[in-house]
Specification:
Elements (H helix, E strand, L loop, with lengths): L19 H24 L7 H8 L6 H34 L11 H16 L4 H24 L7 H23 L3 H12 L7 H20 L1 H7 L3 H6 L4 H23 L5 H13 L3 H25 L8 H20 L5
Helix pairs in contact: 1-3, 1-13, 2-3, 3-8, 3-11, 3-12, 3-13, 4-5, 4-6, 4-11, 5-6, 5-11, 8-11, 9-11, 12-13, 12-14, 13-14
Organism: Amnibacterium endophyticum
Membrane topology: Multi-pass membrane protein
Family: Belongs to the binding-protein-dependent transport system permease family. FecCD subfamily.
Length: 348
């Protein structure tokens, strides 16, 4: 009688569950950090603003250059907080859906798909309004996510974390090549697109933030509703199904929320990397792996990271600015390497 040897799964170093007071403490600390970086974003820039002028500008006092600077920075701060929260939350959801510690909107090709859709819209359909960018970017992100999942599901074994990561990396490279192919013959489109492609929140205004807010709210709601289901999916599809979980529905809802968040954030601020990749890992070290705590923590820490990076980009090159996408790339790469080496994460 032949015995089939089942493959032995390698041991995985999972973050330990944290006691409730520790988790609550980190959430409160993250909320405080959000308030502090928001205040710093309003106060610091090419021109430093004293705190009395900050208060006057926030309250709508039209007098003085300082108050005018504050009023200009408030929409920028709001957009940075929203985009950072969306990218952090989207990264945590995508890692939970795919059970892949390397999943994020950039590596899975979602951000590149959104960027390609925006480029095609600008080049061939004459899109110019931010509202049009949002719809086109979300459609491109959804198509890219479906394509990556279809490629990663092909063959034996279905959609494994490794196959999804490889499919996402290959698709992202292909989308980037297509973007270059569309842009190179069109200098006018390249001038319009290149500043958006770097990733930044410098051109934010109240109308732009209001346009993207409903999409981010719906995406966040879908992601948070899926938190309990993602905890069950983390045990494996067979175990989750045995416990009565609807694995397919959970993955569909969570993936829809993650794609909506990533697409809307990309439309508003351009493709910004490393936030969705590094933030969930950091939050697992702080609050543990349970998604009902991980998802809110990832949103808060993502908002802190992106807003702090935007403030740093304004300060290091006065009177010019360094776009936030460049700052997050410079800061995110070494932080992510440190997190992976410290926690030795191989799978979720």
């Amino acid at each position: 009688m032949l015995h089939v040897a089942h493959p032995v799964r390698p041991a995985v170093a999972r973050p330990a569950r944290r006691p409730l007071p520790v988790r609550v403490g980190w959430i409160v600390a993250a909320v405080v950090a959000v308030v502090l970086v928001a205040a710093a974003s309003v106060a610091f820039g090419v021109r430093a603003v004293a705190w009395p002028d900050v208060v006057a500008g926030v309250l709508g006092d039209p007098g003085g250059i300082a108050a005018a600077a504050v009023q200009k920075r408030v929409p920028r701060t709001a957009l940075a907080l929203l985009v950072g929260a969306a990218l952090g939350l989207s990264g945590a959801v995508m890692q939970g859906v795919t059970r892949n510690p390397l999943a994020d909107p950039g590596i899975l090709g979602v951000s590149s798909g959104a960027s390609l859709a925006v480029v095609v819209g600008i080049a061939f359909f004459g899109l110019t309004s931010p509202a049009a960018y949002i719809w086109v970017a979300i459609a491109g992100a959804a198509v890219a996510a479906a394509f990556v999942y279809a490629v990663g599901s092909a063959g034996r074994g279905g959609a494994t974390p490794l196959k999804l990561a490889l499919a996402g990396a290959a698709s992202s490279a292909a989308f980037s090549a297509l973007i270059s192919a569309v842009l190179l013959p069109r200098v006018d489109v390249m001038d319009q697109f290149r500043f958006w492609q770097v990733g930044g929140v410098g051109g934010a205004d109240a109308a732009r933030t209001a346009q993207v807010l409903p999409f981010l709210a719906v995406g966040a709601l879908l992601a948070l509703v899926s938190a309990r289901g993602l905890d069950t999916v983390a045990l494996g599809d067979d175990v989750a199904a045995g416990l009565g979980a609807r694995v397919g529905r959970t993955r569909l809802l969570a993936a829809a929320g993650g794609v909506l968040l990533a697409g809307a954030a990309t439309a508003a601020a351009g493709p910004i990397g490393f936030v969705g990749l590094a933030v969930p890992h950091l939050c697992r070290l702080l609050v543990g792996p349970r998604h009902r705590w991980l998802l809110p923590a990832s949103a808060l820490v993502g908002a802190v990271l992106l807003t702090a990076a935007d403030v740093l980009g304004r300060l290091v090159a006065r009177p010019a600015e360094v776009d936030v996408g460049i700052v997050t790339a410079l800061l995110g790469a070494p932080v992510f390497i440190w997190i992976v080496r410290r926690s030795r994460v191989r799978a979720l």
